[in-house]
Amino acid sequence: MKLSKLMLLFLVLAVSMALVAGCSGTKQPAPAAAQPVELNIAAAASLKDAMGEIQKLYTAKKPEVTLVYNFASSGALQKQIEQGAPADLFISAAAKQMDELEGKNLIKKETRNNLVENSLVIIVPKDSQLNLSKYEDLTQTAVKKVGIGETETVPAGQYAQEVLKKLALWDTIKAKAVMAKDVRTVLTYVETGNVDAGIVYGTDAAVSEKVKVVATAPAGSHQPIVYPVAVLTGAKQPQAADEFLAFLNGSEAKAVFEKYGFTVSK
């Protein structure tokens, strides 16, 4: 009997040890924490407000990703990219700058698409007494200064020049023009009363309570205002850039763009 009890005890111990070993063998290792990623985004100045909201949405989903924005005129950003400034993704306010980068193989052509579209408007200070309702009214003697983006580097300035030339107004208006480094600077000039009127995107006017829109560029007076986006060939974080680009083209980001007055490209 004693021998049987000892054998039973050994058997119980053996089974217990086997169960413990089996449990420890199937235990899964804890998933590795996502590695932090810094993603550099070069974006046209007119996207600042929308991209700020998109940043909050994206980092809530991907807390390991830090979005580092560089907002400026598209022409200035193009030059920075050509000179090797860090950038993983570029969003331009015109096709021209993206076309030139593509011609130099600085963007991944297969990632390029048109993200959003915009309109071109004349704004004046909220309390302005000027009687303006169309672009031709900028020739009035009461209009002394007109804020316009630099026509060499700022797409909004290039579109403005295109409209004014189309309407045979450029030669008159350029004498009144106060050139700005980007479209948001034009907005600031109008808000502060440093100019009597300014030509900006519709989305810029929409984010300010200090200005009012008095005219929109006539249909056909300028090329469509499209914002192409692409991942750069020299992206340090190509996978993260691809993922963020997919988010920008998704429904959540599109809703934000529409909230700020952009038209989502088809």
TrEMBL record:
Molybdate binds at residues 46, 74, 156, 183, 201. GO terms for biological process: molybdate ion transport. Residues 1-21 form the signal peptide. The keyword Metal-binding applies. It holds the Pfam family SBP_bac_11. InterPro entries: ModA, ModA/WtpA, YvgL-like_PBP2. Keywords: Metal-binding, Molybdenum, Signal. One of its GO terms (molecular function) is tungstate binding. Belongs to the bacterial solute-binding protein ModA family. PANTHER family: MOLYBDATE-BINDING PERIPLASMIC PROTEIN (PTHR30632), SULFATE-BINDING PROTEIN (PTHR30632:SF0). This is Molybdate transport system substrate-binding protein.
